[in-house]
Amino acid sequence: MKKANHSTSPMREFLAGIKGELPILLGVTPFGMIYGVLATSAGLSLWDAQAMSAVIFAGSSQFMLVQLVELGTPAIMMIVTGFVINLRHALYSASIAPYVRHLSPLWKFILSYFLTDEAYAVTIMHYRDSTQDEHKHWYFLGAGVALWTCWQVSTAAGLFLGAQIPPRWGLDFTLALTFIALAVPAITDNASLLSALSAGLTALLTRGLPFKLNLIAAALVGVTVGVWRDKK
What is the pTM of this model? Predict the structure, then answer.
């Protein structure tokens, strides 16, 4: 028997996407604020820091780029680092492509901008449910707009707070603590443990490299060791 097509309106799908994204925003907001504070500490102007959130719109890349800016890393190295960090979005794109194949190039262009970790997570589950609806891309748009708005507002709040903190306090250590907090929960098996240990050891042994290339070396070694251990 053919399944019924329970079609909904574009606006209803859009609002459903916003609603589906709301619980995730509780965790996104603090990170947006932390980014704003750290960007101020690293010496970025308020305009540049906010523009980074609007243009790049990728939290993990922004945290790393702020650190590289503070270290005085050459622009080409920052571009390469940001590109590598965001390669996971290619996997998201491949996963969601079958569901948006029928859309116009303009729609695909718009949705690609909103293809972030948190928006993808709720959208792919919505696409994979049993119902068929030609307006599901509006759900994707709603989730993306909700996330984008939250990220811009929380970034602005962090920038305001950072501007009120005297420079003599120093906030450099908070970035390292943030990455530790992000990395530790991800260590769940032998492969991830060996990857983290090898990356950390490489960063220490190669800390004398110019332009902080030890960070790139550590990332490459960590990924290589993790893939090698995972295949054993």
Answer: 0.70
